[in-house]
Write a sequence for this structure.
């Protein structure tokens, strides 16, 4: 496991532990997810392909059964091949739409802003951009849910707008 992913897992466990020890605050939640990342576009002239380990930690507040605001940090892993190496991590703030299908299942849609830092074998860059995502969530209890999502981050960096995809499965804990 690479250093960035190890840090992400450690932060996730710490955040969930701290959250579980906090007083009850209706609507507040914390979570983390792990999965795979893909860079469909070249980054700084480096062709990227294949999947790498990635994930995110997040926290948010669900204002209504259908709307939440969520912020967090994402790790996109390290992609390497004969043209070079690319690694990236970022921060995000999303508006999350929630469409309950029944008492256990919900569909999720998100639209937000992101800041991504890139480190390539030929330079570093960072930039802001948009983020979108789709997913589903299953409520194990009234406070614990499992989720699966696809998210696309599209920041400006190196004079271009490379796409970064994160496919993840995670846990959300409400307080």
């Amino acid at each position: 496991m690479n250093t960035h992913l190890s840090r992400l897992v450690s932060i996730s466990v710490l955040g969930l532990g701290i959250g579980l020890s906090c007083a009850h605050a209706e609507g507040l939640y914390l979570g983390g997810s792990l999965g795979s990342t893909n860079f469909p576009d070249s980054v700084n002239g480096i062709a990227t392909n294949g999947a790498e380990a990635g994930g995110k930690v997040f926290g948010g507040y669900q204002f209504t059964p259908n709307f939440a605001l969520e912020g967090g940090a994402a790790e996109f892993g390290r992609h390497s091949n004969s043209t070079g190496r690319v690694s990236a991590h970022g921060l995000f703030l999303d508006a999350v739409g929630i469409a309950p299908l029944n008492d256990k299942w919900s569909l999720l849609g998100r639209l937000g802003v992101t800041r991504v830092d890139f480190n390539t074998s030929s330079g570093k860059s960072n930039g802001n951009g948009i983020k979108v995502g789709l997913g589903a969530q299953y409520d194990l209890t009234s406070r614990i849910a499992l989720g699966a999502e696809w998210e696309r981050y599209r920041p400006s960096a190196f004079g271009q707008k490379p796409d970064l995809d994160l496919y993840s499965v995670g846990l959300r804990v409400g307080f």
